[in-house]
Amino acid sequence: MTTTTTTRFVSVVGGAFLGLTALSASAATEMPPLPDVTGDTVKADGDFEIKFSIGTTESGAQYRGLEYFEKIVEQRSDGHIQVALFPGAQLGDDRQATSALQAGTLEMTMPSTSPLVNMFPKFAVFDLPFLFPKPEMADAVLDGEIGQQMLDDASSKGLVAIGWGENGYRQLTNSQHPVEKPADLEGLKIRTMENELHLDIWRTLGANPTPMSFAELFTALEQGVVDGQENPWITIESSKFNEVQDYATETNHVYTPFITLVSARFWDRLPEEYQQLLRDAATKMGDYQRHVSRTLNDQIKQDLKDSGMQITELTPEQVKLFQDKLEPVYQDWRDEIGGELIDDIRAQVQQAQAQQ
Ligand code: EAX
């Protein structure tokens, strides 16, 4: 509603010039349609309202997933649960929204796991570089025993963790020059998530990393406080980072999950039938988000190129230079994360690779 009004206002008042500038600068990607809701109506007592906050914007795959979640929950509760969506960190960044859940002032959020590592140290396993060579391998771990165990562990401290979603493979962007090898990172100021392992990665590669919440990132890039950042293609596009970053490198260096969290204070008031409905809807949202972000990647890269961004795609040999340089990070973090967990995941990945 707001978007449409703004667009019309700009084209009437500002004329073709403003309209065209806006069009060429922001590469708008069309989303696949929302699936139909399946499953019976769930009957239980009471009426409930869920405020659901996320850090990424309305044009990302994460928000699209939330729209599907909203549709499932509202339809299957026959309107007894109403879901209101708040994108773009309007109600706080990942950490602030998570605290609001604990305080009971917000019902749901879906942060990246990385800024929550101080609360749940094992999440750091997902920050290890080049852990999952294929997205399906991340799915197998998240949807399997390890993922379930982590959801159970994160269902504490005033939170209930009900599902995984996809943030995705992270790509590097910067405002200075093309990056093809670790040496090109020398001196580049890179924003990382608020996460020690990410800082370690960029220091090890020779860059100059600074942790910062996602909510502050666009302004920091625009004002040159940092030269670069790293996020999945869909986030680079939906946050319009291409307007302030001329260069991108397809590094795929880390696969980041989103975790769907509910306030325990709210959860405890919900009838069991509705708790189950939320779990089902969270699983469906996660699957759909993966589908959306994966099917859009090629198109987004093309849109970003068309908008003037220079994208470097690395050869396997070039990727290996980054991987080799980052191998010490695995040793540095082994004790902190737990060697057994790392070995388990690496074994699962190798098994999956062998089966291909
Ligand atoms: O959950 O902070 C980040 O860069 C994350 O990838 C995400 O966009 C917010």
Under the CATH scheme, which architecture would be assigned? Answer: 3-Layer(aba) Sandwich
Query: Using only CA atoms, what is the Rg?
Result: 20 Å
Task: Give unreliable regions as ranges.
Answer: 1-25
Q: Which of globular, elongated, flat, extended, rod-shaped describes the shape? A: globular
Question: How many helix segments?
Answer: 12
Helix content: 40-55%
Domain tally: 1
What is the H-and-E element order? HEHEHEHHEEEHEHEHEEHHEHH
Q: Can you tell me the CATH superfamily?
A: Bacterial extracellular solute-binding protein, family 7
The counted number of beta strands is 11
Largest sheet: 5 strands, mixed
> Which strand order do you get reading across the main beta sheet?
2-1-3-10-4
CATH topology name, in short, is D-Maltodextrin-Binding Protein, domain 2
Mean of residue pLDDT values: 92
| Residue fraction in strands | 15-25%
Attached small molecules: (2R,3R)-2,3,4-trihydroxybutanoic acid
Given this structure, which CATH class is correct? Alpha Beta
End-to-end distance? 46 Å
